[in-house]
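Hi support team,

I'm opening this ticket because the web form for multi-chain structure prediction keeps timing out on my end. I have pasted the exact lines I submitted so you can reproduce it. The total is 674 residues across four entries, so I didn't expect it to be a heavy job. Is there a limit I'm missing, or should I split the entries? Thanks in advance, R.K.
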Amino acid sequence: MKKHQVTIIDIARALNLSKSTVSRVLTGHANVSLKTREAVLELAKKLDYQKNMLAISLISKKTNTIGIIVPEFSSSYFPQVIIAAQEVATQAGYNTVVSQSNETYETEVANTKVMLANQVDGIIVSITRETKNYDHLKIFERKGIPIVFFNRVCDEMKVPKVIVDDFEGAYNAVDYLIKNGRKRIAHLAGPVSLRISERRLDGYKSALKKNNIEIDEELIISYDLGLSKVKIYVNHLLNLENPPDAIFAVNDPTAIEAIQVIKKRGLKIPEDIAIIGFSNDYASALMAPSLTTVAQPIAEIGMTAAQLLIDQINRDVSDWKAVTKVLKTELIIREST
Amino acid sequence: MKKHQVTIIDIARALNLSKSTVSRVLTGHANVSLKTREAVLELAKKLDYQKNMLAISLISKKTNTIGIIVPEFSSSYFPQVIIAAQEVATQAGYNTVVSQSNETYETEVANTKVMLANQVDGIIVSITRETKNYDHLKIFERKGIPIVFFNRVCDEMKVPKVIVDDFEGAYNAVDYLIKNGRKRIAHLAGPVSLRISERRLDGYKSALKKNNIEIDEELIISYDLGLSKVKIYVNHLLNLENPPDAIFAVNDPTAIEAIQVIKKRGLKIPEDIAIIGFSNDYASALMAPSLTTVAQPIAEIGMTAAQLLIDQINRDVSDWKAVTKVLKTELIIREST
DNA sequence: CCAAATATTGGGACCGTTCCCAAAATAATA
DNA sequence: TATTATTTTGGGAACGGTCCCAATATTTGG
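Hello R.K., no limit was hit. The queue was backed up. Here is the completed structure from your submission:
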């Protein structure tokens, strides 16, 4: 089926040498006479010799590969984090294997199995909105393979994590809305299973309380982040006898979707209703009205996660550290408020 | 450094069996007594046994992994193609390794080496805007590892390719502009090194000719797709004594950037100047004005590329096929025209 | 109850490297 | 020149599986 791949044995045979000698030349290791060195190098080049990392990794028990598992790929958030993480990883000599769990628990489990089977040296994970059982991730800990969470983390596990101050970000966003005269602020929240939803909800509530605005549970809608449902929720909010004059959305895609719905109803943004998103996705600056949003330091998140993982990989299991880096958000004010 | 990973030998020793027997159970292969089968399965589960694909791949000379190399990750085009390709690959039992070449030739070469070293079963590639030498890709052919191009292809190589009818897409876009009364249509073109730039340029020129509009080279600007330069070019065009009344951009990011510049100058879109992009990126529907664009069947491109690759992998080198699939584009008319 | 048939298990080669240790070749020294 | 020191090379184990073939254990049938 496949052509024969060139191995050091082929080179050794052709030059009447032992594979040990060829190996030595190719790894630039010990003393080899100039003559044989040159001969080996020349033939290797001529034959397009490429070392087989499978064999090397099998022996060294190290693949120099890190896995990244993210829930999705369609908003700009995760791709950007991945770009940043890859940069750090590449710099440190690591390859990356990326897979998306598609927001489903089963796929996430399957992906972790694949990563394990392929002997990654560590993984960076942001869990799905469904993930409640963490056994598939705890296996990594047990096997001594470092794991780092970002964004959507697993509280049960004592491992490095990179998050942003969701509470503060949400608080600032809602506080800003109130300072601008908004009285009835709705919150399109994420699923309760995710800590980030919870923290953003807390920030929202806290800002209301500080400003002596009563929390109206009617204005808080938690949903599973399936964008198609946003339309229903927004329409529901707008049809209330006492509709909101602002919406704080748990993320940008939700906010963007909400804006489409509101525009279609002929309401004016921000005059009739203001909108704030979370994360500063690529599209949020371009759309009309451009979206006010709580920006995350996306590149920093990716780079920090990768760095933490690599640090962990280079440490002995016995001195694993479990730092949690909390990065700052920044409210970016645009036309939607 | 790392903990000992559980192997079939550990299981064999613990149960006083040979590794052959354990292997048989774990692969579900031949006849094994129910008693031993259950004992092995139970212990394997208890110890979190995970087979080491490195060892298996080394012997079978197959990793069930395909590589995908794309120039960038920041527009929505490539991520979407990748999602679609991954779907087909996963379905067929293949893992995917994705890497971005960052639009630089050196990185592309480095990435191909990594893929080779890791013994991928095949690769899907869209080359950088810089790539003029294809030796690093031809190695795959020589080694009998299938390669499939999409979007930005290498003409020199007789391998499967997936492209869209760029000529027709461009032709239709420009023809539409003319039918709507535009007389001076500028073209922000891509680098001449890429065939897609060339074909889109040809379509642009052909539409002008068909409609008896003289081609004004002053209105054609080829650039390297570095978005920061768009501002300079657009301003240059608008400052001409006889400025264009429409711009056909080689891709959506370029068009989106152009729109920002034009809006900043206080011109009205589409009244003063119309804009058309190419690819129907995620943001193009959301922005204001929403962008008229030549849509590519992105998911189909990814799926087709993956399917062609897998077909090729399953064929003997001697009957490799080199089909070129040309998919249709569709002009999506929005507010910018 | 014993031979033959069948079910179950074990042994060992193999994949492509690296690395340690010993062997051979060469150079240095007395 | 013989002997030792130093280069240079070769041999073989190891990594963790799969798979073929032989060996053993268990059934089965006459």
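A quick check on our side: Chain B has three domains: 8-51, 63-163+298-327, 166-295. Let us know if the file doesn't open in your viewer.
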